[in-house]
Write a structure and sequence with these properties.
The chain has 12 helices and 12 strands. By secondary structure, it is an alpha/beta fold. Helix 5 packs across helix 6, helix 6 packs across helix 7 and helix 7 runs parallel beside helix 8.
Length: about 325
């Protein structure tokens, strides 16, 4: 492989990934046929309502699914190598060093009885084999990198503010110099000012360290500040994928349009906020056809019977029957 092809090759490839959950003898499909590629330095937002499959997708990539979940189809490749995402032992060498996660609940993720410096240094010792003194030095550097004075490393998690705890989580995620960071709604439960600071920090670190970022959120406005690309998920499937600029300027899927219409705009006090009617589907008993059709304002007869394919267009992908017969973008793609 040439150097140029190595530079353009995806860092991460997700192909046909499906995950099932079992509960009391009943199995439900949480995500189905999820496919996408992530390149070095790219920031991709996974957006959708609760239960759309965002976190399951991310946890499957990191090999962190709960015991009652299983990968039923598909694969994940990192730099061309297939990852053993359904094997906890096999995934251990890959976690932290290649892919790491910033969880949304810092107080739940951090150990309350250990000082934060020790918690950041621990993966450096376990994963990289660093001597304790070097790991402590690395932890101090990481605290400074995320905007926390190194002398605060002696604090326990409860002695820090919510924003500082989230910065500690980011420092831990960077400990072993991974190429990919997964942010699982990292600004949840933070006030607006702190949320903006954390998003700015993630953007600065991504640019400085050439990190690839997968940002999970239900808020498109967060994606607009942080990401290059956005993938909209609904009922376990990707239903639209494109650049942030294209998605906001020209959303193709009706669900995407409704998500954008539900964002308040302080600059336009006359803008009517349109709530999305109905509720997300029950994944144990999915609607036939397009899962969004019971809530869709643009429903057609075919929507209730046929699942739309995720088609490639010139400026992204969309799974909607409204665009099935429209060929102008597809022609442009192959021109």
């Amino acid at each position: 492989m040439t150097n140029s092809s190595q530079e353009t090759a995806p860092l991460l490839e997700v192909n046909g990934l499906s995950v099932d959950y079992g509960l009391k003898g009943v199995s439900s499909r949480a995500i189905e046929s999820v496919s996408f590629a992530l390149r070095a330095g790219e920031a991709v937002g996974l957006v959708g309502e609760s239960g759309s499959g965002k976190t399951t997708t991310a946890m499957a990539i990191a090999g962190l699914l709960s015991p009652n979940a299983r990968v039923s189809a598909g694969m994940v490749r990192y730099r061309g190598e297939q990852l053993p995402i359904d094997d906890d032992t096999g995934m251990r060498p890959h976690r932290w060093c290649e892919t790491s996660v910033v969880f949304q609940g810092a107080m739940n993720a951090l150990n309350p009885v250990h000082r934060i410096l020790k918690q950041i240094a621990e993966p450096c010792m376990l994963k990289l084999g660093m001597p304790k003194a070097d790991a402590i030095a690395r932890a101090k550097e990481l605290l400074e990198l995320v905007g926390i004075p190194a002398d605060r490393g002696t604090a326990y998690p409860h002695e820090l503010s919510g924003g500082m705890r989230q910065r500690v989580m980011i420092a831990m995620a960077l400990a072993c110099r991974p190429s990919i960071i997964i942010g699982d709604e990292p600004t949840t439960a933070l006030d607006v000012i702190t949320q903006a600071q954390i998003l700015k920090l993630l953007e600065e670190l991504r640019s400085r360290l050439n990190l690839a970022l997968i940002l999970i959120t239900h808020d498109l406005s967060v994606v607009a500040q942080t990401c290059n690309r956005v993938m909209i998920m609904y009922a376990g499937r990707i239903i639209e994928d494109g650049t942030v600029a294209e998605i906001f300027a020209n959303p193709k899927h009706p669900y995407t349009r409704l998500l954008i219409d539900s964002i308040p705009n302080p600059a336009n006090g006359k803008k009517m906020i349109r709530p999305i009617p109905g509720d997300p589907p029950n994944l144990i008993n999915r609607p036939p056809g397009c899962a969004f059709h019971p809530r869709c304002p643009s429903i057609m007869g075919v929507c209730a019977t046929e699942v739309p394919s995720l088609d490639q267009f010139a400026r992204g992908r969309v799974a909607c029957h409204l665009h099935r017969s429209s060929h102008e973008d597809k022609v442009a793609l192959h021109a």
